[in-house]
Design goal:
Shape: globular
Order of helices and strands: HEHEE
CATH topology: 60s Ribosomal Protein L30, Chain: A
Radius of gyration: 12 Å
Number of strands: 3
Largest sheet: 3 strands, mixed
Helix content: 25-40%
Strand order of the largest sheet: 2-1-3
Number of helices: 2
CATH superfamily: RutC-like
């Protein structure tokens, strides 16, 4: 989430501009922990989100998150 925050900041945007996210988890059992961390980055409306388990992620990652943000 800190990497995504840096990318948004570089584009003069914030998590308030995010409208959709996709979260891929290597282990679906990590959902609750990831959800708690994720929620801490949003102050008002949460974006549309889907969370999926993936058999394998690049670089043997445990979590991969992609976001779509729109500048209003």
């Amino acid at each position: 989430m800190e990497n995504l925050k840096a990318i948004l900041t570089q584009a003069n945007m914030s998590f308030d501009d995010v409208v959709q996210t996709r979260i891929y988890l290597k282990e679906i059992g990590d959902f609750q922990k990831v959800n708690e961390i994720y929620a801490g980055y949003f102050e008002k409306n949460y974006p549309a989100r889907s969370t999926l388990q993936a058999a394998a992620l690049p670089r043997n990652a445990q979590v991969e998150i992609e976001m779509i943000a729109i500048r209003a």
